[in-house]
């Protein structure tokens, strides 16, 4: 080997400052094609990312080869969303070379922070569901679990949100515009995926009836692999994302003019499949393209999983011992029919056996009880787009209902509720029922949510299969959400208890005894203050609003949705504003209300609430009579990168959904781990957070899920009466309705007021208002006593160990997947 090449080989692996520096300079010149004087921040980002990527490749291959050689059981996490955010600081931290990299760049005169900041935020998801998938990838790799993520490589991620005159406006998010240094295109990993056409019946070699799907349109799925670095850098797993490619026939099929144009048009149409992420969060668009996206990535993933399995096996009998497939919500649930099709039609497995294999392989996670988010595809659409799957679904259904008939004993309501087909009106395929029936385990994402699943959406299925539903309370990765995003607090914790907590979060419990130590409290406050300063600077840059660093940072960051009740928060802000104006001589606790979140583009009510927050902010922030004691900020374009700045800086965490409606929440965990006190309802994982941090260290208010249920059932709630009896609420609503915040259009907020009154206040904003204001007052009072506040904040951080996604993922691994850690070894050959 050429000596120069060899020395580069070694450098590619070296993790010290000199080796890193030499590779940076080399990459900049030879791969990015710039010299140091001309290089932009983006050039440096690409340079550093490529050099860091070099340091992953050997261990990535070791990991993959070890899984192959041991024929380890793998888990495949199928998700339409992976909200991974930036990867550079994550890779550096998990490899343990952040400081070396910083020094190497310093020597070149470049700041690591600037380089990190030049990375686009990969927003291949909407919110909690997608971010959970990303935390799970980190935890699987950190726990040495053979886990693969499978999804779609959207060309456009979640839209960029801007405010124009206070209204949300969406812009395309072009994260791939300048290339993505983390991904490895695999043009040879290509699978055909079919749509439309028809089903032909024929007799197979032994004279049995069989079916084939013919005259279908074909699209190709091409793989792009991204390495997923586990903490410590030993296990490096794979996130495989599919991109749609037209088949060759489209490219070269015809050369006469008209047909050629048509062929190119067809090419664009097929490649649209992976063009854009649907920006729906908890509401369904119900579009054909969405169904096609779901089938596209599911089919490609299953073909890939079967190919990998067949490297070691000749029959499918052991598939469930070698592959666990987790369905992240119902989005990939068509995979149940697809695996049946692949096994029965393509591999000649008999139906009953195929069904046993399918059920033993799949498991399903439910993430919401909102009826509008439960996928139900029109039968006519499925028949047209996936004709063979529709047949298979009918067959599964017929066999199932036949068996259940005896047990239903004349209860036809029950049978029609169990059916995979909703026969009411326009017939639909219930994807939740399909996912339930085709899985051996079905889980909810918090204790309360799992209980409610048993009582509501899946009550009939639960009666039928009492062992199937189980709970896996969500978690968050402590690497990204504390170690990387909160350097001041991470350093403080490590200085006191060592760094074991990064990999084993429950160790953080050792901080609890330091809550009574004044010196520690002072240092804890200093760390928080640093983060608040950083956020204040970010707010000033993004919005021009100046906020007081020592005010109470009251944070509500999440998707904009009526059930999450940003409206309740802004109404309380108006009430507080009024009190401050009425009582100018009181020494008010200064409060900064920080909101951030996107609304689905077609969700008008959520967009109107955004406009209301912006309108209220404009009035309050410019009113000299409140003496800067209240500021309201709505940050644009909330994403993972913004969250990394916001979470560490929060004092108060708003988790105020209508009880029974938030499946879990994960922002609640990030904020509490970073030392924010929660103000919240007994909803989702708030219930378990209260159990862990202790009820003295959390502000719980409002109706419980049961009370909400009773109130709605009894019909005995009249929002107008509630409003009439609460002067501060009435005044706030009157101000909105008389145009105090919208003098240019006094009727602007009529739909909101309408929903709160004649609309029956479905989300119980008025019902919880008084209790919420009281809890807010308690929080403000406590904040006056900084020692006591800090003590509770420390106890929050110290008691959040259980909410690590490492714990969650190990529960899935042992209780659902039967997948075990496999430590990578250096082995020479083996395939993926
Ligand atoms: C979300 N669901 C829930 O709304 C959150 O409460 C939960 O924390 C996350 O899932 C993760 O489990 C969805 O995003 C969806 F799409 F299912 F509605």
TrEMBL record:
Cofactors, names only: pyridoxal 5'-phosphate
Reaction catalysed by this enzyme: [(1->4)-alpha-D-glucosyl](n) + phosphate = [(1->4)-alpha-D-glucosyl](n-1) + alpha-D-glucose 1-phosphate
Family annotation (InterPro entries): Glycg_phsphrylas (IPR011833), Glyco_trans_35 (IPR000811), Pyridoxal_P_attach_site (IPR035090)
GO molecular function, one term: 1,4-alpha-oligoglucan phosphorylase activity
Pfam families: Phosphorylase
Keyword Phosphoprotein carried by entry: no
UniProtKB keywords: Carbohydrate metabolism, Glycosyltransferase, Pyridoxal phosphate, Transferase
Transmembrane residue ranges: none
CDD domains the UniProt entry points to: GT35_Glycogen_Phosphorylase (cd04300)
EC number: 2.4.1.1
Superkingdom of origin: Bacteria
Keyword set includes Hydrolase: no
Gene3D superfamilies xref list: Glycogen Phosphorylase B
Principal EC category: transferase
Family: Belongs to the glycogen phosphorylase family.
Cited function: Allosteric enzyme that catalyzes the rate-limiting step in glycogen catabolism, the phosphorolytic cleavage of glycogen to produce glucose-1-phosphate, and plays a central role in maintaining cellular and organismal glucose homeostasis.
Designated name of the protein: Alpha-1,4 glucan phosphorylase
Species of the source: Azospirillum rugosum
């Amino acid at each position: 080997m050429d000596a120069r090449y060899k020395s580069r080989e070694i450098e590619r692996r070296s993790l010290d400052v000199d080796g890193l520096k030499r590779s940076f300079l080399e990459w900049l010149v030879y791969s990015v094609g710039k010299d140091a004087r001309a290089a932009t921040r983006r050039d440096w980002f690409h340079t550093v990312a490529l050099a860091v990527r070099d340091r992953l490749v050997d261990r990535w291959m070791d990991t993959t080869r070890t899984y192959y050689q041991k024929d380890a059981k793998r888990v495949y996490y199928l998700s339409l969303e992976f909200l991974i955010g930036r990867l550079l600081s994550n890779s550096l931290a998990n490899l343990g070379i952040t400081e070396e990299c910083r020094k190497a760049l310093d020597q070149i005169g470049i700041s690591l922070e600037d380089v990190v900041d030049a990375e686009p935020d990969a927003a291949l998801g909407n919110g909690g569901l997608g971010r959970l998938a990303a935390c799970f990838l980190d935890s699987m790799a950190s726990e040495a679990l053979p886990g693969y993520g499978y999804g779609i490589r959207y060309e456009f991620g979640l839209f960029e949100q801007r405010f124009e005159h206070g209204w949300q406006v969406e812009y395309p998010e072009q994260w791939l515009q300048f290339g993505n240094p983390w991904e490895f295109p695999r043009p040879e990993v290509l699978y055909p995926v079919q749509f439309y056409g028809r089903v032909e019946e024929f007799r197979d070699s032994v004279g049995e009836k069989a079916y084939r799907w013919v005259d279908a349109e074909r699209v190709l799925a091409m793989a792009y692999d991204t390495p997923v670095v586990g903490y410590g850098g030993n296990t490096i797993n794979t996130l495989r994302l599919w991109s749609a490619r037209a088949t060759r026939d489209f490219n070269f099929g015809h050369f006469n003019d008209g047909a050629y144009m048509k062929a190119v048009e067809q090419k664009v149409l097929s490649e649209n499949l992976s063009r854009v992420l649907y920006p729906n969060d908890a509401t369904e668009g119900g579009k054909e393209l969405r169904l096609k996206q779901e089938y596209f990535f599911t089919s490609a993933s299953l073909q890939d999983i079967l190919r990998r399995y067949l490297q070691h096996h000749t029959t499918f009998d052991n598939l469930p011992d070698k592959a666990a497939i987790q369905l992240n919500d119902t989005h990939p649930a068509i995979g149940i029919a697809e695996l049946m099709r692949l096994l029965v039609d393509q591999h000649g497995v008999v139906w009953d056996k195929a069904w046993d294999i399918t059920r033993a392989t799949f498991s399903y996670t439910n993430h919401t009880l909102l009826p509008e988010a439960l996928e139900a595809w029109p039968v006519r659409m499925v028949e047209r787009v996936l004709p063979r799957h529709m047949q298979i679904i009918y067959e599964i259904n017929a066999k199932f209902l036949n068996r259940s008939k005896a047990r239903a004993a004349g209860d036809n309501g029950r049978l029609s509720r169990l059916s995979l087909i909703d026969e009411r009106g326009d017939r639909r395929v219930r994807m939740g029922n399909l996912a339930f029936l085709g899985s051996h385990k079905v889980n909810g994402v918090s204790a309360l949510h799992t209980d409610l699943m048993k009582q509501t959406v899946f009550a009939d299925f639960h009666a039928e299969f009492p062992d199937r539903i189980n709970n896996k309370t969500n978690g968050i990765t402590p690497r990204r959400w504390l170690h990387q995003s909160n350097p001041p607090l991470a350093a403080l914790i490590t200085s006191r208890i060592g760094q074991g907590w990064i990999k084993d979060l429950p160790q953080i419990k050792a901080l609890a005894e330091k809550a009574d130590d004044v010196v520690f409290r002072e240092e804890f406050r200093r760390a928080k203050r640093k983060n608040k300063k950083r956020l204040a600077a970010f707010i000033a840059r993004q919005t021009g609003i100046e906020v007081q660093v020592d005010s109470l940072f009251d944070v509500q960051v999440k998707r904009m949705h009526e059930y999450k009740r940003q409206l309740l928060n802004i109404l309380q802000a108006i009430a507080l504003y009024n009190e401050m104006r009425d009582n100018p001589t009181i020494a008010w606790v200064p409060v900064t209300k920080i909101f951030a979140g996107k609304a689905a583009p077609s969700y008008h009510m959520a967009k109107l609430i955004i406009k209301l927050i912006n309108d209220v902010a404009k009035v309050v922030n410019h009113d000299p009579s409140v003496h800067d004691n209240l500021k309201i900020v709505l940050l644009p374009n909330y994403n993972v990168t913004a969250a990394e700045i916001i979470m560490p800086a929060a004092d108060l965490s708003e988790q105020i959904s209508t009880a029974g409606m938030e499946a879990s929440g994960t922002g609640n965990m990030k904020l509490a781990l970073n030392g924010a006190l929660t103000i919240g309802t007994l909803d989702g994982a708030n219930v378990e957070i209260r159990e862990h941090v202790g009820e003295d260290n959390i502000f719980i208010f409002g109706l419980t899920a049961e009370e909400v249920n009773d109130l709605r059932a009894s019909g005995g709630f009249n929002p107008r009466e509630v409003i009439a009896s609460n002067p501060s609420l009435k005044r706030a609503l009157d101000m909105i309705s008389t145009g105090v915040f919208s003098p240019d259009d006094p009727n602007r907020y009529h739909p909101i007021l309408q929903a709160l009154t004649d609309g029956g206040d479905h989300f119980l904003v008025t019902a919880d208002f008084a209790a919420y204001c009281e809890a807010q007052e308690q929080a403000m009072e406590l904040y006056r006593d900084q020692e006591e506040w800090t003590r509770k904040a420390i106890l929050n951080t110290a008691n959040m160990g259980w909410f690590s996604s490492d714990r969650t993922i190990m529960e899935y691994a042992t209780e659902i997947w039967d997948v075990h850690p496999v430590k990578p070894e250096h082995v020479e050959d083996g395939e993926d």
